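We modelled the chain as a single entity of 114 amino acids. Its sequence is:
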Amino acid sequence: MGITLEIARKEVAEILKANKFVQLNASWCPDCVYTKGIFEKYGVYNQFYFFEIAKYQRGTPEFDYYYLAFQEAANKKNLPLIFANGKFIGTEHTIHKWEANGTLEKELRKLDLL
């Protein structure tokens, strides 16, 4: 049996429950590369589960259903989508804002990443 939206929703819910930190990621997405770089810089990269949507071809049911399931979980259409403790916390815009405000380390500590 192939993937369905219901199966994708269930799998995404399980991923968010099983992993403290999750990022919906695409290797071709410059914003995803940026956030992964920030996580590497602060030594927290290995705490993340990166769901690589780019392993599926755009327009296939796998790509569309997983992407939609993550978008529904975040209530946002974007890449990357970043989750902590099963809850959507932001996108690269959030990380940029924390960086610009000088609060990035403080926010990472609040998330229990540092």
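As a brief sanity check on the tokenised model: Helices lie at 5-18, 30-41, 61-74, 92-101, 104-110. Residues 5-18 form the longest helix (14 residues).
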